[in-house]
C-alpha cells in the first residue's frame, strides 16, 4: 500500500488566514489538523488542532490547570473568542520540526514513521504537480488494522 492509495483531498490554509476560520474548518470537517501552504500552494507546515487550542487557551490556564477551574462557565465557554483578529501564522508551533510531507510512492511504514517522528496526525502528499492531498492518522490506522 502506498500514500497514493490512502490520500484524500484535504483543505489547506495560508499563514495569513484568520485562525478562527481555521478552527471552524477543523471543527466543521472533524479534521486532526490543516495543511498550511505558501503562495504557490506547497506545504510549509502542519497546523494540528491542538495548536489552535494552545493559542486560544490563556497561558495561565496552561501553566496551572487549577486556575482554569476558577473561571466561571460562561467565560470558560467563550475562550475561543480570543482568536478574533489572530492568524494561522500565530498558531504555528514555534519549534520547527521536520515537515511531514511525502511523495505518492511512500509506503505505509514510511508514512507511519514520518507521523511518529514529526508527531503529526497527518502527512501531506506532494508530487511534481503540487499538493495532492493528505494521509491522516485515522486512515493509516484503519488500513493497517484491517490488513
Automatic annotation (TrEMBL):
Keywords: Kinase, Transferase. CDD domains: CBS_pair_bac. Residues 10-47, 96-144 form the CBS domain. This is Histidine kinase. It comes from the Bacteria. InterPro entries: CBS_dom, CBS_dom_sf. One of its GO terms (molecular function) is kinase activity. Gene3D superfamilies: CBS-domain.
Amino acid at each position: 500500500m502506498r500514500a497514493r492509495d490512502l490520500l484524500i483531498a484535504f483543505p489547506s490554509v495560508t499563514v495569513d488566514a484568520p485562525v478562527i476560520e481555521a478552527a471552524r474548518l477543523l471543527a466543521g470537517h472533524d479534521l486532526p489538523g490543516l495543511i498550511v501552504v505558501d503562495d504557490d500552494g506547497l506545504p510549509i507546515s502542519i497546523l494540528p488542532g491542538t495548536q489552535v487550542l494552545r493559542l486560544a487557551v490563556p497561558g495561565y490556564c496552561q501553566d496551572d490547570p487549577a486556575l482554569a477551574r476558577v473561571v466561571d462557565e460562561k467565560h470558560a465557554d467563550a475562550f475561543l473568542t480570543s482568536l478574533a483578529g489572530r492568524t494561522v501564522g500565530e498558531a504555528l508551533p514555534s519549534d520547527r520540526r521536520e515537515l511531514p510531507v511525502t511523495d505518492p510512492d511512500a509506503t505505509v511504514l514510511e508514512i507511519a514513521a514520518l507521523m511518529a517522528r514529526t508527531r503529526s496526525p497527518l502527512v501531506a502528499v506532494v508530487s511534481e504537480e503540487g499538493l495532492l492531498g493528505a494521509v491522516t492518522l485515522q486512515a493509516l490506522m484503519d488500513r493497517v488494522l484491517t490488513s
